[in-house]
Amino acid sequence: MTSSLWYSSMASTSIPGLIIFCTSFYIQKLESAQFSVIGPDQPVTAVVGQDIILSCHLSPRMSAENMEVRWFQNNFETYVHLYRDGRDYYEQQMPKYQKRTELLKDGIMDGNISLKILNIERADEGQYNCFVQDGITHDETILDLHVAVLGSVPLISVEDYQDGGIHVVCQSAGWFPEPKLVWRDPSGQHLPSVSETKAQKDNGLFEAATSIVIKEYTNSSLSCWIRDKYLSQGKESAVYISDQFFPWVNPWMVALIVILVILSGFLVLIIYFCKLRTSSIILNLPTYLPFCLSVHCLYTINTIGVEKRRHLSRAGKNCASCGERESDSGSRHGSSFPHPVRGSKKCDMERDTEASAQQS
């Protein structure tokens, strides 16, 4: 009887306690859903050597001053930064983040629990967890951090003449990740390049080069723009090439060259047709030979006749002068009778030459 009363009293007292426990547990479960942790939807990009803020806040807005805020990467225990009980803890902080992190407390009363990382390094790239706990209520969000390295200012060099223009090269080094190079005119329009090379060095950084051929009166003023694929910012260099550096061609020289080419073509044609005619005459030589010989003989006879007539004319003049001289000599001696005119040996030789020419 007594034992039954004891069991009934225990049952009566345990049922209300169980109800209270379940109610409190349910209330705590409801409290765990009272806030959520919000981070950026897109990856965050930082530049090596600069500072970056990883945004994180509570929704709805409420004070996180008495909550635990833990930033970590892969290991929950070894954290990037820990805030709890109103102060920062550094005992289990990852060595590479020591003295480089700061929880921004200016907006902590409004639920802003963003983390600032100083002097970004390439090794900082990766995923970050923003974890918040209040009693048994907790929530977290994950965000991605990309780290970029901005390389050197593009170096533009004029190499040589190529394809009727000037070959210009742009090169830069020390970029991460792989950069993008673009040629632009003064209006910002992209210009096509003739070549582009990229290579990753042992230190993990990239170097890149691109080239273009500038034509006269087209794009003598241009710029080389190189940027990181994560960032819209980049570095740019410009160059202007005067028209006097372009290959110069004299219009008169061009006209002269064209005329010479045309004349050379005509000369080749004339030589070709002459060779054809000469070969035709040689093939028909038996037909043309008698005619050629007769023409040659007539030309020779006419030439000999003309020369003989000239010689006889000169001989007659000489003989006449000789006769006059002999007549004058006879009259000076006082002779009035005619007598045979005897000339000198020169006149006799001339007369003999004339007689022989007439006989021939």
Automatic annotation (TrEMBL):
Residues 345-354 have a biased composition (Basic and acidic residues). Residues 16-143, 154-242 form the Ig-like domain. Its main location: membrane. CDD domains: IgV_MOG_like. GO terms for cellular component: external side of plasma membrane. Residues 321-360 are annotated as: Disordered. GO terms for biological process: regulation of cytokine production; T cell receptor signaling pathway. It is found in: Membrane. Keywords: Immunoglobulin domain, Membrane, Signal, Transmembrane, Transmembrane helix. The chain crosses the membrane at residues 6-27, 252-273, 285-304. GO terms for molecular function: signaling receptor binding. This is Selection and upkeep of intraepithelial T-cells protein 1 homolog isoform X12. It comes from Alligator sinensis (Chinese alligator). The gene is LOC102380798.
